[in-house]
Amino acid sequence: MEKISFDETKYLKPAQAPYVNRLAPPRIVKLVLREGVTQRQRQILLLYFYERKNMAEIAEILGINKSTVSRTMKRGLRHLRQYLQFYAEQKKDDE
Predict the structure, then answer these.
(1) How far is CA 36 from CA 43, 61, 63, 88, in A?
(2) What is the C-alpha separation between 11 and 29, in angstroms, rounded?
(3) Could you point out which of 21, 41, 83, 86 has its C-alpha 20 to 30 Å from the C-alpha of 92?
(4) Cβ contact 38:71 at 8 Å
């Protein structure tokens, strides 16, 4: 089976604001996807949430095992949660 190329650049654009506490939550998510996770985590999260692919389809697209998709997604989501929690704490302190 031939590996399919995945272009993640269509989802991610440079951040507009330089400081995390000035970003709106959707922009925080984009920032974390761009800078807070590995390339493989980013690919899997984008395919799952933006392209609505299931884990078997992602595994086939990327040429990896389905269990690798699951583990990598969990790690990526953990990083995303940590950044969002940090953002929420920063907003709380600003109020």
Answers:
(1) 13, 23, 23, 16
(2) 11
(3) 41
(4) no
